[in-house]
Amino acid sequence: MKRQIGIKQIQLIDDLVSHFIKSKGQFSVLLDSLSSNIEHSESIKKLIHSTKSRIKDPEHLKDKLIRKAKDAIASNTAYSYTKENLFLKINDLAGFRILHLHTKQFQKIDIELKKIFTEQQWKIVEGPNARTWDDESRSYFESIGVETSANPNMYTSVHYIISPNTSSAITCEIQVRTLMEEVWGEVDHSINYPHKSESLSCREQIKTLARVTSSCSRLVDSIFTTDEYEKSRNAVVPSFPATKLVKKVGNKKPQKK
Hints:
CATH superfamily of the domain at 7-179: Beta Polymerase, domain 2
Mean pLDDT: 89
CATH topology of the domain at 7-179: Beta Polymerase, domain 2
Low-confidence stretches: none
CATH architecture of the domain at 7-179: 2-Layer Sandwich
CATH class of the domain at 7-179: Alpha Beta
Oligomer: single chain
């Protein structure tokens, strides 16, 4: 017979959710600060298309904690979530997303983000870590020294977990992805979150969409690579005026007869 979540555990989960609701102001301050720093950085603004942020819906947190409780029962392990470690163990209570146009912008975005983290004395708890299912994407990120993780759900995004320089133990998840990856992510989130779709057709179509958006990302990358090449090839090379040969006249010695 399957063990069910007990009354005490349900009460604990409710207490954890209430603790999060009371602390939402701290997460809002962190997101506002991150947004402001990016908005006032001209160097990073040139590289990105747009940003998005959100604080996790308390009902979604409750659903996640219930799933974790069920997993603990199934694996016969202790349920380890407490008020003291909730904000450390669940890192996506505050989420910030950076969208950009093409893949190779990421390397410069990473440099600028780390400058902001250093200036604000924010700690990088994890990352950057590129979660990807695509071999070509994995190869690119590894070539620039970014750790990669295989993602069987056909998801591609670079993740950071940061913690502010405050006494409160809160964290924020930052995601960096291209606009094409965002298209797939938004569709998948609508269909498969917080629970996976039971429709086999939808699941297969979402896999196809991942391949299509990946191809679109490559096409966008190719467009920008071609544009950069053409601009460099057609760059005007500075020219210098030709030296004029001046025929010297006068003071010419008469020829002897």
